[in-house]
Amino acid sequence: MSVWQTAIEDALQKTRRNIGKFGDQFPHVSTDGGRSYELNANDDWTDGFWSGMLWLCYEYSGDDAFRQAAARTVESFRERYEADRVLDHHDIGFLYSLSAKAQWMIEKDEAARQLALRAADKLMARWREPGQYFQAWGPAGDSVNGGRIIIDCMMNLPLLYWAFEQTGDEQYRQAAVLHADKSRRYLVRGDDSSYHTFHFDQKNGEPIGGDTAQGYTNGSTWTRGQAWGVYGFALSYRYTKDRLYLETSKRLARFFLCHLPEDEVAYWDFNAPIESGTPRDSSASAIFCAGLLELLDLMDESDPERAYFERRIRFVMESLVLNYSTINEPNVEGLIKRGSYHVRGGSSPDDFMIWGDYYYLEALLRLEKGIKGYWYEDR
Fold first, then answer.
1. Could you confirm whether 91 is annotated as catalytic?
2. Which of 1, 18, 169, 276 could form a disulfide bond with 5, CB atoms 3.0-4.6 angstroms apart?
3. Which of 10, 44, 47, 91 is catalytic?
4. Is 263 a catalytic residue?
5. How far is the CA of 200 from the CAs of 145, 195, 205, in angstroms?
6. Is the pTM of this model over 0.85?
7. 10, 44, 47, 152: which is the annotated catalytic residue?
């Protein structure tokens, strides 16, 4: 059995057990140093990742227990949509791409497709016409966040590209492209690093400046944000075939790899002082690996960087499996340790992250079986 197969079998075993432990609740992060997940009633931005893990496990194993559990989460997302519960933010793609859209992709369930399309409309409500961007957080006109975009949103745009493909309604694609262009111009720096967030004047869209919400400093490079960018720009290229997005993804990937420590797994910020207790962020490395696999799938066979990327991703994935996974800890709930949520805010700086587990599993399944996740239809 390969190292990838061993890690996948461990993930299936833990996820199957977690179905019974979590019930109708959704895992978020751990708060006890990485033993058990904090649960919620489907009211956080991270809840789609649990749904996505269940669909991935079902696709790999064919075990109907995973399918039934995944379908129950979609019903929970339907109820959340109808109640309009904590949906006034940009993370709608994280929630509904990995739940309703995943069910449509796997089972061609029309009700799931319609739910995903309604979710795309909910995301469109975040569009701010004067600035031509999707506002990340807060209500329209918010004094702090009204003009803010964040790099994470690159992973929510695929829901809109998909909605355009499903309906032919150009508004979805046009808004996604305009936001991706603005993100490329203002969030990606000249040295191939990235801002976490950027602010614009709400009235006329004029740029104000970049800063951070979770990174070390406003001018530093938060590693999870850099990883979102690698994957998000690659997906924008897949949908639009605009090579500027492909080149941007490559630039961000190159920077990420060039700034990794010796064991190939990122610290929480590339500019944070490295001391004995500096937190890692295994979830950033997991996102990066899934994104780099997507990028490799899009690169020409003759691309001179292809061999380098292929070699390095195996080093990073092997380190995640051998040094950060819980393969040898059968009684814990998470798949990879040493994730960080919000280090400066003191929130889970060294714990399980459900998104880290999701992207780790997505990357493993892509390496082992070619299962690519639920960001676009490829079935």
1. yes
2. 1
3. 91
4. no
5. 10, 14, 5
6. yes
7. 152
